[in-house]
């Protein structure tokens, strides 16, 4: 029984009951009212995003709150924030698989879906920030007769490779994990259209020993490849900043700092989605309080790593003896963006200490609140890195402040709506909890009894 408790399973669960419970969410039950509310609101926000983008592209990016020296502004803040969430999703699933953490079965599908839709939102912002997205092919590394080569010194080219690589990998990893579950839905489908639909998605999966052997091997290889891909891609995003000579960017600690920050925001988002989906679809037997406890522990671990990075960043700034670094932190603490920095510290350093208490970690409402504040804190962290590092550069005559405009906020709300809309559609088409991983967990727990 001790092993079963360790895997966070509810006793008396069987392969049949798990399959009927998860597949039944799609095939046997109508969507709950809360799903329809989320679907309609998110669809409206996604449609609003289309309208806002049409206005921005026909008018120009001058609608955004950008200027010189804060040329990157709000779009790049949101790009980095979305990329952090996306990278963490796949890394969480892959690392938990490689380390054989059996409790991953209840949350790995949410993490993989979150990664897929977050990277789609992240990829929009560089195109929006271009102002002329129809010239996006300037970023592609192709030779032509007009000597049009990408500017390899531009971070935009790095972002293209980072985002496109990660998009391909994440979609492949997610689809591979869905294959056995699509076959289950195909075999349980009662309507002809659903049978054809899931048969097409299952790619001829027959549940044979050969299929499972190849699946397990491919899954292990994909998971092993995930870690270096995620670390290198996150490193590229951080190096966009670290290789510059801007004092607020030029920190060698940025690559590991960004990876830890991504994992912190990723575990926070998975915890948020787990609590919401658990309540929306009544999954208390599949996503138990033990799962929430584990997620809370992981949030705390990576929050402490991020907090350590904050301290080292400040130490480096003052130990360097460079007055420009002094000015960056003096400005962050007392300048026009000081409320952003102190709010970030409150969310990412002060509030997360509540996760030391098991009672807080096992409470869905408390964990939901801390997941939201952690995501806000990580977004504020990206904001203060981009804005405070650039608004006061080496030339005091060029110093200026910039703030997001209404159009900035509308685009951000639109991408949030797009993310939720894609997630709502996903959970009605594919199992939001991995059926075959849950069966494997039940099998493993019974074997250890």
TrEMBL record:
The chain crosses the membrane at residues 35-68, 80-98, 156-178, 221-245, 257-280, 292-310, 340-357, 364-380, 409-430. InterPro entries: NrfD-like. It is a multi-pass membrane protein. The keyword Membrane applies. Pfam families: NrfD. It is found in: Cell membrane. Keywords: Cell membrane, Membrane, Transmembrane, Transmembrane helix. GO terms for cellular component: plasma membrane. Belongs to the NrfD family. This is Hydrogenase. The lineage of its organism: Bacteria, Pseudomonadati, Pseudomonadota, Gammaproteobacteria, Pseudomonadales.
């Amino acid at each position: 029984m001790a092993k079963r408790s360790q895997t966070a399973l509810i006793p008396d669960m069987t392969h049949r009951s798990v399959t009927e419970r998860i597949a039944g969410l799609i095939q046997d039950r109508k969507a709950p009212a809360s799903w329809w509310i989320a679907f309609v609101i998110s669809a409206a926000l996604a449609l609003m995003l289309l309208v806002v983008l049409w206005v921005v592209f026909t008018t120009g990016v001058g609608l955004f709150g950008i200027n010189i020296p804060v040329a990157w502004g709000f779009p790049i803040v949101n790009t980095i924030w979305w990329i952090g969430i996306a990278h963490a999703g796949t890394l969480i699933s892959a690392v938990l698989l490689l380390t054989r953490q059996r409790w991953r079965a209840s949350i790995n599908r949410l993490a993989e879906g979150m990664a897929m839709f977050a990277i789609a939102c992240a990829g929009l912002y560089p195109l929006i920030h271009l102002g002329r997205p129809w010239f996006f092919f300037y970023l592609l590394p192709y030779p032509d007769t007009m000597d049009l080569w990408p500017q390899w010194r531009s971070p935009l080219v790095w972002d293209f490779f980072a985002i496109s690589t990660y998009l391909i990998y994440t979609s492949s990893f997610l689809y591979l994990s869905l294959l056995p579950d699509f076959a289950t839905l195909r075999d349980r489908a009662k309507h002809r259209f659903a049978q054809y639909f899931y048969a097409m998605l299952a790619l001829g999966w027959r549940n044979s020993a050969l299929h499972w052997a190849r699946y397990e091997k491919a899954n292990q290889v994909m998971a092993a490849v995930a870690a270096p891909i995620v670390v290198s891609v996150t490193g590229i995003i951080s190096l966009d900043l670290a290789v510059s000579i801007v004092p607020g960017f030029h920190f060698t600690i940025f690559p590991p700092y960004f990876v830890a920050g991504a994992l912190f925001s990723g575990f926070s988002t998975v915890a948020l989605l787990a609590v919401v989906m658990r309540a929306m679809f009544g999954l208390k037997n599949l996503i138990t309080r033990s799962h929430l406890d584990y997620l809370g522990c992981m949030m705390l671990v990576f929050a402490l790593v991020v907090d350590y990075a904050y301290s080292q960043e400040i130490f480096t700034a003052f130990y360097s003896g460079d007055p420009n670094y002094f000015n960056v932190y003096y400005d962050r603490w007392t300048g026009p963006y000081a409320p952003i920095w102190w709010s970030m510290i409150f969310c990412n350093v002060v509030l997360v200490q509540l996760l030391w208490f098991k009672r807080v970690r096992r409470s869905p409402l408390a964990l939901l609140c801390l997941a939201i504040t952690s995501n806000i804190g990580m977004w504020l962290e990206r904001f203060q890195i981009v804005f405070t590092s650039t608004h006061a550069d080496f030339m005091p005559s060029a110093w200026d402040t910039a703030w997001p405009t209404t159009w900035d906020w509308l685009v951000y709300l639109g991408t949030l709506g797009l993310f939720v809309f894609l997630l709502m559609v996903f959970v009605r088409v594919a199992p939001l909890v991995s059926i075959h991983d849950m069966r494997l967990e039940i099998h493993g727990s019974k074997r250890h009894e």
